[in-house]
């Protein structure tokens, strides 16, 4: 029985310029080509995901490996650079029991090849059915910035994700979970069909925010977060509502389909 957090784990990854470009291209399939060649802020999650997923699944038994991504916060000093060796260091912050299993929070710090930390990610996940983990540590509260000042003019965007766009994102991000690619695997997991990656929705919101409020400069997004409410199936219109403050320093967003909210309490901060 697990009673204490696992020691910090580390892994090293390198992203080529081609991988960075392919990721942005996959996210922007419904938008014009990216006006700048820099990495999406969500590319930090791409570099951290495999280590986080491996660590989370190691906390429980193989029979209890259904992991639901509940929420994600990303804060970064700069974007991922092409060809740099990035070290990801992960700590499990805490675990607590819930009716469906065990909720956990993990923190991942990314360090560049210059030895300087440039990003921190906090991931919330639910281990469905996991009963062998004793509560420990702390589950941090959502870290969305508090509203300040008057609000600006809201905006909306509508996208429809398809099996082709979902597949493109899967290969660009390296997340080949069958629930995103195989309808039978998705149905076995309780979905009607394949579903989009939650982080692809947040990445798409980042692109809309950069295009509308940062002159297309994705590097001006220095933090982003959101909570996942429901899956996004292909063929369903996805409405993204953007609410900037008057100074365009913070943009709050929500994403929903006809079935209800998909991402709620979304936010991004701009430099």
List the helices and strands and how they pair.
Elements (H helix, E strand, L loop, with lengths): L8 E6 L2 H11 L15 H16 L8 E10 L8 E14 L2 E11 L5 E12 L7 E2 L17 E6 L2 H11 L9 H6 L9 H16 L7 E8 L8 E8 L5 E8 L2 E11 L1
Antiparallel strand pairs: 1-3, 2-5, 2-8, 3-4, 3-6, 4-5, 7-9, 8-11, 9-10, 10-11
State the secondary-structure class: alpha+beta
Please tell me how large the radius of gyration is.
18 Å
Average pLDDT metric? 91
Instruction: Give the overall form.
Output: globular
Percentage of residues in helical conformation: 10-25%
What are the low-pLDDT stretches, counting only 5+ consecutive residues below 50? none
User: How many beta strands in the DSSP annotation?
Assistant: 11
The main β sheet shows up as: 11 strands, antiparallel
In N-to-C order, the SSE pattern is EHHEEEEEEHHHEEEE
Give your account of this protein's structure.
With 271 residues, the chain is of the alpha+beta class. It is 22% helix and 35% strand. The protein is built from 5 helices and 11 strands. The chain has helices spanning 17-27, 43-58, 163-173, 183-188, 198-213; strands at residues 9-14, 67-76, 85-98, 101-111, 117-128, 136-137, 155-160, 221-228, 237-244, 250-257, 260-270. Strands 1, 2, 3, 4, 5, 6, 7, 8, 9, 10 and 11 form an 11-stranded antiparallel sheet that branches. Helix 1 packs antiparallel against helix 3 (163-173). It is globular and about 50 Å long. The N and C termini lie far apart (45 Å). The model has no long low-confidence stretch (mean pLDDT 91).
């Amino acid at each position: 029985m697990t009673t204490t957090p696992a020691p910090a784990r580390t892994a090293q990854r390198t992203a080529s310029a081609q991988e960075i470009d392919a990721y942005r291209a996959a996210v922007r399939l419904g938008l014009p080509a990216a006006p700048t060649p820099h990495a999406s802020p969500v590319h930090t999650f791409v570099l951290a995901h495999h280590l986080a997923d491996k660590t989370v699944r190691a906390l429980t038994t193989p029979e209890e490996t259904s992991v639901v991504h509940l929420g994600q916060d990303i804060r970064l000093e700069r974007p991922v650079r092409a060809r740099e060796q990035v070290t990801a260091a992960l700590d499990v912050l805490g675990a607590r029991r819930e009716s469906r299993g065990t909720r956990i929070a993990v923190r991942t710090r990314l360090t560049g090849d210059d030895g300087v930390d440039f990003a921190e990610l906090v991931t919330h996940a639910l281990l469905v059915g996991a009963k062998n983990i004793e509560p420990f540590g702390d589950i941090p509260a959502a870290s969305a910035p508090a509203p300040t000042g008057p609000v600006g003019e809201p905006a909306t965007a509508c996208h429809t994700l398809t099996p082709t766009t979902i597949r493109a994102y899967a290969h660009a991000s390296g997340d080949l979970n069958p629930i995103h690619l195989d309808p039978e695997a998705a149905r076995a997991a309780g979905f009607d069909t394949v579903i989009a990656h939650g982080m692809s929705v947040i990445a798409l919101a980042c692109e809309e925010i950069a295009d509308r409020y940062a002159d297309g400069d994705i590097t001006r997004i220095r933090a982003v977060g959101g909570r996942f409410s429901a899956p996004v199936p292909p063929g369903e219109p996805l409405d993204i509502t953007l609410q900037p403050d008057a100074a365009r320093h913070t943009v709050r967003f929500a994403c929903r389909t006809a079935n209800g909210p998909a991402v709620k309490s979304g936010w991004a901060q701009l430099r």
